[in-house]
């Protein structure tokens, strides 16, 4: 059963400019492994984290570091959740999180579907 759906978009150039103006934001939003990726990929990962928050009902107190996008050997993205995000996932009864990322024409986007 679908428990929540979230979608988000992010302007890649504007996101990159924000990261340049506020370099500490990278450490706050992304894990060390995520932070090494190019700006379009970071924008898509930020959109995914926003989409996940929306799918969870936008609860307060979640750390962006606790929701990491990793890719499997075929390049398919998935969330690894821990800490504050894992707690919200458990409260919502979510057993599976699906995520799709895209970036094209200067826009990064993500869709998240949570099942329980």
From TrEMBL:
A biological-process GO annotation: fatty acid biosynthetic process
Cofactor(s) this protein cannot do without: Mg(2+)
Record carries keyword Phosphoprotein: no
Stretches assigned to the 4'-phosphopantetheinyl transferase domain: 4-85
GO CC term (a single one): cytoplasm
UniProt KW Lipid metabolism keyword: yes
Similarity comment: Belongs to the P-Pant transferase superfamily. AcpS family.
Name of the molecule in the record: Holo-[acyl-carrier-protein] synthase
Organism of origin: Microlunatus flavus
């Amino acid at each position: 059963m679908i428990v929540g759906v979230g979608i988000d978009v992010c302007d890649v150039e504007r996101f990159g400019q924000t990261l340049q103006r506020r370099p500490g934001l990278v450490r706050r939003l992304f894990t060390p492994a995520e932070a090494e990726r190019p700006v379009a990929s970071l924008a898509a990962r930020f959109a995914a984290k926003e989409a996940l928050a929306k799918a969870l009902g936008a609860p307060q107190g979640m750390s962006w570091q606790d929701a990491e996008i990793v890719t499997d050997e075929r390049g398919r993205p998935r969330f690894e959740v821990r800490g504050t995000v894992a707690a919200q996932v458990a409260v919502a009864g979510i057993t599976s999180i699906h995520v799709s990322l895209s970036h094209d024409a200067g826009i990064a986007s993500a869709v998240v579907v949570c099942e329980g």
